[in-house]
Amino acid sequence: MLRAGGIVALPTDTVYGIAVALATPGGIERLFHVKQRPPDRAIALLLADAAQASELGVVSPAAEALAAALWPGPLTLVLPARPDAEWPQVLAGDGPTVGVRLPDHASPRALAAAVGPLPTTSANRSGQPDALDVAMVIDELDDGVDLVLDGGRMPGSRPSTVVDLTVVPPAILRVGLIDEARIRAILAAADLDSAAD
After folding, report:
1. Does the model's pTM come out above 0.85?
2. 1 lies in a domain?
3. 194 in a structural domain
4. Total domain count for the chain?
5. How far, in Å, CA of 100 to CA of 111, rounded?
């Protein structure tokens, strides 16, 4: 379904998401349309393994330290996009960066291994509660998705923590399941951060 250009709802380690293959023409725009979300909002790519991050972005020592300590898990790293990577225009923007995450769930990792990193966003309309099970996905998005993978009920609670590694020192853009103190401690232990904020 992903190779055919379809949108797939899938379980992650936090909530259900909707994903499309990165190479699908107009696929990311379709994700925004299904969510009724403004196209200027960032979207993360779910990875099969940590090595895929270096295919998409410039992985700094700080990124390596955080990934080694906290992946797989609810951590999104914002990296400078690799200048040689081919990006859909909607992801490229004016100053290209890329958000990447290695989820602690086998399904998105297996799909990303098969078709490449997956642009993924939560499976709900913008501003609505996160979908924690298949019934919520269907109620919220109905015919906006082409396939729903039932992974049971997701834990929900808080989203991934987002750390911007395009700036020095790294900036915590959103505190989620991983608290700020843990991010700071990992970077400080690697002597890579004096004041993550």
Report:
1. yes
2. no
3. no
4. 1
5. 15
CB environment 131-168: b (16+ within 10 A), e (fewer): bbbbebbbebbeebbeebbebeebeeebbbbbbbbbee
At position 33, the amino acid (one-letter code) is: H
Counting other chains too, the contacts that 143-148 makes at CB distance below 8 Å and 24 or more residues apart are 144/7, 144/18, 144/33, 144/34, 145/6, 145/7, 145/8, 145/9, 145/18, 145/34, 146/1, 146/6, 146/7, 146/8, 147/1, 147/6, 147/7, 147/8, 147/9, 148/8, 148/9
For residue 111, being part of any structural domain is answered with yes
Q: pLDDT tens digits, residue range 110-161?
A: 999 999 999 999 999 988 999 999 999 999 998 899 999 999 999 876 889 9
CATH of the domain at 122: 3.90.870.10
Q: How many CB atoms lie within 10 A of CB 54?
A: 14
